[in-house]
Amino acid sequence: MAEFVNFEVVELPKLHLIGKELRHNMEAIMTGENKIPGFWEECMADNVFKTLEEQADFLYDKAYVGVMMDWERGDGNFSYIVGMLFKDGVKAPEGFIMKELEPTKAAVGWIKGKDVFDVCKDAHQMTEAVLKEKGLNCDKIYWCMEHYDGERFLIPDENGDIILDYYIPVE
Predict the structure, then answer these.
(1) What is the pTM of this model?
(2) What angle do CA 61, 167, 104 make, to 5 degrees?
(3) Is pLDDT above 70 for 74?
């Protein structure tokens, strides 16, 4: 069972999200048709990150991200982008999508658990509950992000646990 272990609010600069996009529907996910794990496997097999890492001078950080974006604002459809975050000046490689994230304040929850499913399953709900307890508002968000920090996520601690950083923009 995952546990919430840290909370902070950070100021993010303008960023460019570059990656591969999957269009999906929240209703499908709720009824058990979650295509996101398979999409991650496809992106890893296609060396998406190797291509992105070639623009190292523009990387915001080295973490891989999964960003859910509700561009239509509330119709249940969303884009899920597997990629990385970059600073100004970056160019999207052919076949990749690029979305600009405006400067924003974001709540960040650290979710600790045994595996990817464990930390991702309730990350949004756990982070949202804590940010609301702290008096923050996330009612107008159109994106949220799984931020796979290399050291916390890829290297299990002495108990075999990994940590996912989960971002939700706040007002």
Answers:
(1) 0.92
(2) 80
(3) no
Question: Which single residue is written with the structure tokens 């982008």?
Answer: 81
Domain total in the chain? 1
Q: How confident is the model at residue 71 (pLDDT cuts 50, 70, 90)?
A: low
CB atoms within 10 A of CB 95: 9
Measured between alpha carbons, how far is 66 from 41 in angstroms, rounded to an integer? Answer: 12
The Cβ of residue 37 has, within 10 Å, a number of other Cβ atoms equal to: 11
CA distance 23 to 7: 30
Question: Domain of 160: which CATH number?
Answer: 3.20.80.10
Minimal CA–CA distance to 2: which of 147, 141, 157, 126? 126
Q: Quickly count: other Cβ atoms within 10 Å of residue 65's Cβ.
A: 21
Write down the residue that tokens 């499913």 correspond to: 117
**Contact present, 20 and 43 (Cβ < 8 Å):** yes
Q: Quote the pLDDT of residue 82.
A: 97
Domain that holds residue 98: 3-170
